[in-house]
């Protein structure tokens, strides 16, 4: 049985159909990437999966449990975590305190949460910035903090919304390694990405969204050759 | 500025007037407004000035039927807060409408129930509005 | 907390404990008691106003509820030893009932809603003759430790001191516990907090109820200290605003802030009132207002930043 089972997910905003009959499954231990041009409905999809938004129709099952209708915090407790496209840190709190908020979900107390937070911060490379104010971090730092925060909750499935955006080539490679390490520890990853380098290196499977609909699904090699995908990104080939 | 070898320097240019919508911009996001060149502090001061002037005018008009004493402002201050909140923050028609509504509620309560409950009924009405519309009647945020 | 900070705090506690032994003048004792009370009220308010970030302008309503509960129970011969904690519980219960619809409101509306609650409760109590109506309630004059009523003022100082210590420890413990982190997270970004599994509704209610309970307990103390309460003094908007002022001026969202704010504002208010209030020139109020303006201008994050700044320079 798939860990994440999305069926006929549709989200309408009045006349605009942001997601139409989106159906896919993600097995435990997979790395699935969702790509698509801007405005394809990727973040809307994430919002519906994580409970920040309610789909107009359709069902989302996580480990058998129906997620539609649950609050974001209830879904988080089940082990499905998401990061935000624009990092939303708790700006007034320190970096370590930010991660502790995540850790407190599973850790039995504040001291244990602090230990876990320090461990996770080391793992993402923010080990020496623990006492800095979260609002003072650079964009790259804030993205790492976003990642560290959800990691501290010991998630089962991570929805990562454009974690690689705005990183230079070195940072991008570091990120890929980090994600590989997270995956190796048993976390299922579903990533929305524009940076194809990350997608091609990591994804077992790619889903392509365009105008709210799933237009292709398959291995990276299959998808980049798929005519509908090429058309979605580059437009129909014109005659010379 | 070109170097002036003869004669006095030209006078410094006048400060640019704020673009239309500056007030809305500052209200939504002060930092972003500053980034596009809007002097947020100046806009703040202008708004305070305008608002205080209008209230002063209202106060002057009030003297024809209300007696004047040092803390007369406090009586109306609280109700005006409620008027704005009930109408919804960010909505001028809302504030105007609820101001009228408050006057009506006060008068009706004083007449139908008892003068002692006038102000309380306004607050009760306010709480009821918030129950059904957590952003006031026409609130933007 | 830094070691110097802890040392200064310990010194302050010792000085306050020894104060009535050294200074016998009941006026000065009253000033310190009021200082301790407002500091504690500010600290209690801070739980919901500072950490959680929901400014409440109507907190006096919980003070009044605690005060009325204590005196009403005293009338039926229930000792304030019981009445004061029950006052706190009543305040917490009302907070629970009232919190459900109000805590989902955003900041500005929440502040106005608490004001509305204060005003409505005021009118309700004025019209309840069984609770004394507009005349109010008074505590009997007695010298009975069992009833927590004394002829001299000194024992009240000790009660206030112990309650203040309790309030300080309680707020300190809460700030460093899971609740403190969750509250500050909700304040920072509620949606992001929820996405990390923070049960925001439950914790918002917790802050509100605990804050109300502490305020209610102090309301109970207030009622037997002053010996008399009426709707105008118990459900008083000025008192409510004074609490907010003390907390914000001292440093919103910090543990020590409200106590510093009270240490500045209360002696200033009482001192100027005694020295200049009688002349009718209003100079005392002017100085009070001036102090507030000066602190807001130069220490916008509160008096607490005085200490932090010095610490930063030393590093």
What do you see in this structure?
- The complex is a heterotrimer of chains A (240), B (141) and C (315).
- Chain A has 240 residues and is of the alpha/beta class.
- Chain A has helices at 42-50, 72-78, 95-103, 110-124, 139-151, 169-184, 196-202, 220-225, 227-234; strands spanning 4-13, 16-26, 31-35, 57-62, 65-66, 80-82, 157-161, 188-192, 205-210, 213-218.
- A 6-stranded mixed beta sheet of chain A has the order 6-7-8-3-9-10, sandwiched between helices. In chain A, strands 2-1-4-5 form a 4-stranded antiparallel beta sheet, with helices on one face.
- In chain A, a hairpin with a 2-residue loop joins strand 9 and strand 10.
- In chain B, helix 4 (72-87) packs parallel to helix 6 and helix 5 crosses helix 6 (118-132).
- Chain B is elongated.
- Chain B starts with 21 loop residues before the first helix and ends in a 9-residue tail after the last helix.
- The two termini of chain C are 15 Å apart.
- Classes of the chains: A alpha/beta (240), B mainly alpha (141), C mainly alpha (315).
- Chains A and C meet through helix 2 and helix 3 of A and helix 7 and helix 8 of C.
